[in-house]
Protein backbone atom coordinates (compact mmCIF):
# COMPACT_ATOMS: atom_id res chain seq x y z
CA UNK A 1 0.00 0.00 0.00
CA UNK A 2 1.40 3.36 -1.00
CA UNK A 3 0.23 6.62 0.54
CA UNK A 4 0.92 9.73 -1.43
CA UNK A 5 0.34 13.31 -0.42
CA UNK A 6 0.53 16.46 -2.42
CA UNK A 7 2.65 19.41 -1.35
CA UNK A 8 -0.49 21.29 -0.34
CA UNK A 9 -1.71 18.42 1.85
CA UNK A 10 1.61 18.12 3.65
CA UNK A 11 1.79 21.87 4.19
CA UNK A 12 -1.66 21.79 5.81
CA UNK A 13 -0.68 19.12 8.32
CA UNK A 14 -2.41 21.05 11.13
CA UNK A 15 -5.86 21.13 9.55
CA UNK A 16 -6.98 17.55 10.29
CA UNK A 17 -6.15 17.97 13.98
CA UNK A 18 -8.55 19.58 16.46
CA UNK A 19 -7.74 23.18 17.40
CA UNK A 20 -7.14 22.29 21.08
CA UNK A 21 -4.53 19.65 20.23
CA UNK A 22 -2.58 21.92 17.88
CA UNK A 23 -2.87 24.77 20.37
CA UNK A 24 -1.35 22.50 23.02
CA UNK A 25 1.51 21.57 20.68
CA UNK A 26 2.16 25.24 19.84
CA UNK A 27 2.29 26.09 23.55
CA UNK A 28 5.52 24.07 23.88
CA UNK A 29 7.37 26.20 21.33
CA UNK A 30 9.72 28.93 22.43
CA UNK A 31 9.64 32.20 20.46
CA UNK A 32 12.64 31.28 18.29
CA UNK A 33 11.17 27.87 17.36
CA UNK A 34 7.82 29.49 16.64
CA UNK A 35 9.43 31.97 14.22
CA UNK A 36 11.35 29.14 12.54
CA UNK A 37 8.13 27.13 12.06
CA UNK A 38 6.43 30.19 10.59
CA UNK A 39 9.30 30.52 8.09
CA UNK A 40 8.60 27.10 6.55
CA UNK A 41 5.93 28.41 4.18
CA UNK A 42 3.25 31.05 3.76
CA UNK A 43 0.69 28.42 4.79
CA UNK A 44 2.48 27.70 8.08
CA UNK A 45 2.90 31.44 8.65
CA UNK A 46 -0.83 31.96 8.32
CA UNK A 47 -1.85 28.78 10.18
CA UNK A 48 0.39 29.22 13.22
CA UNK A 49 -0.57 32.84 13.74
CA UNK A 50 -4.19 31.70 14.31
CA UNK A 51 -3.36 29.79 17.50
CA UNK A 52 -3.22 31.08 21.05
CA UNK A 53 0.24 32.59 21.35
CA UNK A 54 0.04 33.69 24.99
CA UNK A 55 2.07 30.67 26.14
CA UNK A 56 4.82 31.38 23.62
CA UNK A 57 4.73 35.18 23.55
CA UNK A 58 3.37 36.12 26.99
CA UNK A 59 6.94 36.81 28.18
CA UNK A 60 9.41 38.13 25.66
CA UNK A 61 13.02 39.27 25.72
CA UNK A 62 14.08 41.79 23.11
CA UNK A 63 17.78 42.35 22.44
CA UNK A 64 19.90 43.97 19.75
CA UNK A 65 19.68 40.70 17.80
CA UNK A 66 15.88 40.27 18.00
CA UNK A 67 14.13 40.31 14.61
CA UNK A 68 11.58 42.91 15.73
CA UNK A 69 11.11 44.38 12.25
CA UNK A 70 10.15 41.00 10.80
CA UNK A 71 6.64 40.17 9.57
CA UNK A 72 6.57 36.85 11.46
CA UNK A 73 7.59 38.61 14.69
CA UNK A 74 4.89 41.25 14.19
CA UNK A 75 2.21 38.58 13.68
CA UNK A 76 3.09 37.11 17.07
CA UNK A 77 2.70 40.36 18.96
CA UNK A 78 -0.57 41.50 20.54
CA UNK A 79 -2.44 41.89 23.80
CA UNK A 80 -1.17 38.51 25.04
CA UNK A 81 2.32 40.05 25.55
CA UNK A 82 2.37 40.81 29.28
CA UNK A 83 6.03 40.84 30.36
CA UNK A 84 8.89 42.38 28.40
CA UNK A 85 12.61 42.35 29.09
CA UNK A 86 14.61 44.86 27.03
CA UNK A 87 18.37 44.36 26.70
CA UNK A 88 20.02 46.99 24.55
CA UNK A 89 23.20 49.01 24.30
CA UNK A 90 21.45 52.37 24.17
CA UNK A 91 18.17 54.02 25.07
CA UNK A 92 17.25 54.85 21.45
CA UNK A 93 17.01 51.16 20.60
CA UNK A 94 14.85 50.60 23.67
CA UNK A 95 12.55 53.41 22.60
CA UNK A 96 12.14 51.93 19.11
CA UNK A 97 11.46 48.47 20.56
CA UNK A 98 8.76 49.87 22.86
CA UNK A 99 7.23 51.79 19.95
CA UNK A 100 7.17 48.59 17.86
CA UNK A 101 5.36 46.79 20.69
CA UNK A 102 2.72 49.49 20.84
CA UNK A 103 2.39 49.62 17.05
CA UNK A 104 1.78 45.85 16.93
CA UNK A 105 -1.01 45.87 19.50
CA UNK A 106 0.83 45.11 22.74
CA UNK A 107 -1.38 47.37 24.84
CA UNK A 108 -1.66 45.18 27.95
CA UNK A 109 1.99 44.95 28.98
CA UNK A 110 2.19 44.59 32.76
CA UNK A 111 5.94 44.68 33.39
CA UNK A 112 8.97 46.02 31.55
CA UNK A 113 12.51 45.24 32.67
CA UNK A 114 15.17 47.35 31.07
CA UNK A 115 18.88 46.59 30.97
CA UNK A 116 21.38 48.90 29.35
CA UNK A 117 24.76 47.43 28.51
CA UNK A 118 26.45 50.75 27.79
CA UNK A 119 28.46 50.67 31.02
CA UNK A 120 29.78 47.18 30.21
CA UNK A 121 31.06 48.32 26.84
CA UNK A 122 32.81 51.37 28.19
CA UNK A 123 34.10 50.07 31.52
Automatic annotation (TrEMBL):
Gene3D superfamilies: 1.20.1280.50. InterPro entries: F-box-like_dom_sf (IPR036047). It comes from Phascolomyces articulosus. This is F-box domain-containing protein.
